Amino acid sequence: MNLFSARLKLHHSAEEAAANLPDLMLKAEKAVASVLQGEHAQKRAGHGEKFWQFRDYIPGDRPQDIDWRQSAKADRVFIRQKERQTTQSAIFWCSRSPGMNFSSAKKYPSKAEAAKILTLALALLMTRAGEQIGLFGAGKTGRTDASLHRMGEALCAPGTDGRELPDADTYSLPRHCSLIQIGDFFMPPDEIDIAFKKLSAHTANGLVIQILDPAEMELPYSGRAIFEDPAASASERVNHVDSIRDRYKQRINDHIEAVRTVCRNRHWKHHLHTTDLDIGDTLLKIWEMFS
């Protein structure tokens, strides 16, 4: 591909991302409309709830902040400082694996669409709570409309990268950030555990949102069916789906529990979302977990 062709392809990709962005933003804003904003406390002086430290009184301090008991122990007047709400960073990873494009029915969004909406909706909530947001590997965070716009454009960009887990060996995370990973996580639990172990060395505050289609949970088919793995370009034909349904459902439930256990071992949170559920309800539950 020559330079002109590469620029033309990039231009078309940018146009497609720009065309899809308003719809994604609208869906994300609709999802956050009824969600109460949460806050994260860090130790800095302010008017929070928890005690942090004492300091000397200076003119202009509020009388109600004076700690008279501590002041009585010395010939000085002490102010009782508390924590305040301060900025944190939230880094998002949203799977672009080919398998995320699956939807079993027109009434359900694809897993990829649900993941993008949840990613941008959570980012919207966090910027409104004063936090910095960014995409994994982008190397830049912010809390302005421009930061949200950049994230939206990246989410809307066409194509897939085939990666089913974040590249923990290539990219580093900001210190003390929150890491939100959204995907179907259909790879072997051992591989997930290795990746999460590396990532958890940089952050103790992790959330994994596992998104599945209801058909992937229930296998509601009968007769002959062909199972495809887009990532591996592999397929398998089953002549009598009814005969494997119970075993399949046990395996998928075991896999979800295995992913949940991997998260639990890293002291991370896990939430399962199926695409037949209301995204706003899921968003509220996730936000309450973080808050």
Description:
The chain is of the alpha/beta class and 291 residues long. The protein has 2 domains: 221 residues, Rossmann fold (3-Layer(aba) Sandwich), CATH 3.40.50; 45 residues, no CATH class. Helices cover 40% and strands 22% of the residues. The protein is built from 8 helices and 9 strands. The strands form 3 sheets. A 5-stranded parallel beta sheet has the order 4-3-5-6-9, sandwiched between helices. Strands 1-2 form a two-stranded antiparallel sheet. It has a two-stranded antiparallel ribbon with strand order 7-8. The N and C termini lie far apart (48 Å).
Short account of what is shown:
The chain has 8 helices and 9 strands. It is an alpha/beta fold. Helix 1 crosses helix 3.
Measured distance between first and last alpha carbons:
48 Å
Shape: elongated
The largest β sheet comes out as: 5 strands, parallel
Low-pLDDT stretches: 6-14, 36-49
How many helices? The count is: 8
Strand content: 15-25%
Compressed to H and E, one letter per element, the order equals HEHEEHEHEHEHEEHEH
Rg measurement, Å: 23 Å
**Arrangement of strands in the largest sheet:** 4-3-5-6-9
Secondary-structure-derived class = alpha/beta
| Second-tier CATH architecture of the largest domain | 3-Layer(aba) Sandwich
* Number of extended strands: 9
Instruction: Determine and state the CATH class of the largest domain.
Output: Alpha Beta
Fraction of residues in helix: 25-40%
Q: How many structural domains?
A: 2
Q: Indicate the mean pLDDT.
A: 80
CATH topology of the largest domain: Rossmann fold
